[in-house]
Structures are given as C-alpha cells and as structure tokens.
Amino acid sequence: PTKLRLSEAVSGSKLGANVQVQGWVRSVRPQKKNLFLHVNDGSTLQPLQIVASSGLLTFGCAVEVTGTLKQSPHQKQLVELEADQILVVGECNPVDFPFKIKERHNLEYIRQFPHLRCRTNAFSSLLRIRSEATTAIHSYFRENGFVQIHTPIITSNDCEGAGELFQVEPQSPENDEDANFFSVPAFLTVSGQLHLEVMSGGFSRVYTFGPTFRAENSQSRRHLAEFYMVEAEVSFTQSIEDLTKVMEDMFRSATEDVLAHCAEDVALFHKHVTPGHRDTVDHMLKKRFPVITYTEAIDILNRSSQKFAFPTQWGCDLQTEHEKYLVKHCGNIPVFVTDYPYELKPFYARDNEDHPEHTAAAVDLLVPGVGELCGGSLREERLDLLRTRLEEAGLQDTYSWYLDLRRFGSVPHGGFGLGFERYLQCILGVDNIKDVIPFPRFSHSCLL
Ligand code: 4AD
Ligand code: MG
Q1: Domain end: 100, 132, 163, which one?
Q2: Which is the closest atom of ligand 1 to the Cα of 418?
Q3: Global pTM value
Q4: In this structure, which residue's CA is closest to atom 30 in ligand 1?
Q5: Does the keyword RNA-binding apply (predicted)?
C-alpha cells in the first residue's frame, strides 16, 4: 500500500489505490453490518470516512488503516476508504478523554487542555490558519523587497522603556563570575525595533517575525507575556504615510491569502465558533483604512455620549474602551490614529516640531474587536534632538551606539510592530488572546 496524508486521500486523486493512512479517530458510527469511522491526521479539515467490518475502536484512539480508496456513495464526501486492516496504534479511553464524541466544545472549555486541544476541529483549524497566516506575512515582505532579520531574543536594551522586562540569568550560578554571565543585565526582548533600525541602515527595508516578551501583569483578553510580533523598518521615509501604506497593504495581503488558502478552515471557524464574523472581515476589507490624528480622536471621544471608565482629555493615553469606540465611530473598519502627544511616546519617536501641539510622528492601527493592533512611528533621525532626549532620560551612555547610527549616514526612517495574536483575533473574531496561540503564557500561568 501507498502511505498517504489524509489531505491527499480525501482529494479523490487516488481512487482505486491500495493505501495506508494514519490518524486519530474523530467519530465512530456502528451500523448493522459495518462500522463507519472518521479519521483525521490534522493535514486537512475533512476527515476520511473509513468503512470497516465491526471492531473494537473508540473515539480518540490512534489508528493505522490499510485498504482501498473508493468513490463514496454519500453526498457528503468524495471518497471513502474500504478497510482491509485496522491497527490500533494508541488506545484512548473515551470516558476519561476530555472531549466527547459529537459535542462541540467551546474555546474556553478546550483551553483547559493545552496538551490535547489540537484534537478538536476548532483548534486544529485555528492552528492551520495561524500557520498559513505566518507564511502569508513572510510572502508579503518577500514580495515587497524586505530582508528578514533574526533579531535577538536576549538583549541588553529596553526598547519601549515601559519597565516590563523579564531578566535573564543563569540558573543557580556557582560563583560571581557565572552569576554575571553577560557582564550587563540581560533581558528577553520586548521588541526587535532597535536591532531592525541598525539593519535598516544597510538594507533599507527589513522585517522580523518572532516571539517577544512582556512582564505585563494583565489578565486582559489581549495581553500575553509571550507573543509573536511582526516588525518592519523602512529607510528614506518622507512621511507617516510611508508606514501606514505598508501596514495596510500587509494586513490586506495576508488576510486575502488566508481567506483564499484556508477557505475550509476559515469557513468552519466563522460558522461554528464565531458565527457571522466573516461579514465583519469582508466589511473591513471593503474600504481604505481612514486616518485621524490623536487630536481628532480626543475630540470624537469628548463629544461622544458614551460614558467611559477612563475620562478623556488631550494628553491622556487611549484605553481599550476608547480604541473600540473610535473603531465603531469610523464604521467598524480598521483606523489609523497618528501624531500622539510627544510625552506618551518612547525616546525614539520623531518630534513633530512643526505642529501646534507637542506631538510625535507616531501611529497606531486600531481594529474591530481588538483595539490596538499595530504601533509604529517615524524615528528621530536628527542627532542633536535625539541626544537631548536621551540625556533628559539619562540614557545617553546606554544608547551611545544608537546615537552612532545618527552620526554615520543617518536617514529618515520608521517602522511598526503588529501583534500577531491580535491579528488572528481580529480576522477570526476570537475574544480571548489565549485561544489563538498554541501555548499561552500569562501571569500565574505557564502550563506545559
Ligand atoms: O505598541 P508596541 O509596544 O510597539 C513596539 O513594541 C514598537 N517597538 C514596535 C515597532 O515600532 N517596531 O507593540 C506592538 C504591538 C501592539 O500594537 C500590540 O498589537 C502587540 O504588539 N502587543 C501585544 N500583544 C499581545 N500581548 C502583549 N502583552 C502585547 N504588547 C503589545
Ligand atoms: Mg503600542
């Protein structure tokens, strides 16, 4: 027999062939003469129907089936496998198995079983979509002339300056020498931005896509301690539009790719897990994303009749409730907010000295259901302004190499970061960020 992945077996291209498939039993239907099984190996949403003479098989067990692929008499599927032999590779006690046959378990329930939830349709669809979205994002950057940079996980800088660092030290050092492994305090990265800025000075267009870490003691539905960030940095920028264009194009291109390449998985998800969300996604892609300034955003919020838990005034940071309101106000499509108060932004943000209010050339992309999806800015490329700001923060020595970048061929540049889990939440309509990552890490939880 020829060994086949399930995706190939269900496609109908191997009718009549003697084949062997392996997978996990997703359903068992004993009938008078025959036993009907659905088996899946995760390569496709479609299970393969197996027709066997009765045998002892339970929901959840792992099997290896040898037989002949035949055209199925049933409308639901193209092919079925007439089994000659079924080998139980791994048994499964259906009484103890947390997922019950024929039941649709919700995301919250299956989250309790991070080691088993890939056996559910909802979560395996989600992870195939996540995998496809990863590829789609890499494709976008490759097709648009960006060089991928592997920025470090361990770093000595705190790019965002928000004090949310995890420190890295050797476990139980035997002497002081070992304890001070890097000779400087070292941390898990909160952002690859500064390393990308280094590289944008040689490659013009660079990006990175990897894990980032924040010791955020937040139990929110959109924060994790470990999340994946897509970051891009572009040289020779003229205005913030050079960034919003990349953000919007990437969002559209990745989403269209996912909808096209994972159509079945997306359809299942939008039908059973987050009903109606497909309309929201189609609606989001219809129009260009509007751009408003922070000052306009504050005006909109001040004029709204909605009562916010956090009152708004010029200078305040936008909270999730404000972001969600602004998205609704703009027609439930993604919206860019630009030119935030200078004081709210980290040291690297470019000073808009020509504006009446003191703002920085920063931009966030806010999206339906989530709020902030991307944060970015033009970077301060002028040596004197940057040096002054670093001195005010007492950071001139820490960032002497960063100042060097402004000494040796400095160019206007800028970039942004997109939270990949929030992106998945947005296109899938998933309420809780813990449900879109295989192994969520957050305060008081580091299972497995
Ligand atoms: O807005 P942030 O903090 O921006 C930066 O880190 C910049 N240095 C990026 C850059 O310009 N290269 O983070 C970027 C995005 C946020 O908009 C959000 O979507 C996501 O990362 N994010 C988180 N996602 C999940 N859990 C968290 N704790 C997150 N913190 C930020
Ligand atoms: Mg931000």
Answers
A1: 100
A2: 15
A3: 0.96
A4: 223
A5: no
